[in-house]
Specification:
mainly beta, four-stranded antiparallel sheet, two-stranded antiparallel ribbon, 6 strands
């Protein structure tokens, strides 16, 4: 699916973080295609997500806003080494 959700490490990643208003209000960060990759900034303030259609988005965790969107930034959902 295209949902991007932030899980609570204090609850052993079994529950979503409800201190984030957008999650509490059921307004998740979204992609149009299935999310296939996620990484976080060192300070945990931003995340980057990639979807099966090659779109990469950079999000601010605090407010759930998409800061940057890159179309066709990668070759799609395939992962792993090359030939």
């Amino acid at each position: 699916d295209g949902f991007v959700e932030i899980w609570d490490p204090d609850r052993r990643y079994e529950e979503l973080r409800t201190d984030l208003a957008y999650q509490k209000n059921d307004e998740p960060m979204m992609h149009d295609a299935a999310v296939t990759a996620v990484t976080t900034s060192a300070d945990g303030c931003m995340i980057a997500t990639g979807d099966a259609e090659g779109t990469v988005k950079v999000w601010k965790v605090e407010n759930g806003r998409c800061l940057r969107r890159f179309e066709r930034a990668h070759g799609g959902s395939r992962a792993g080494g090359g030939t």
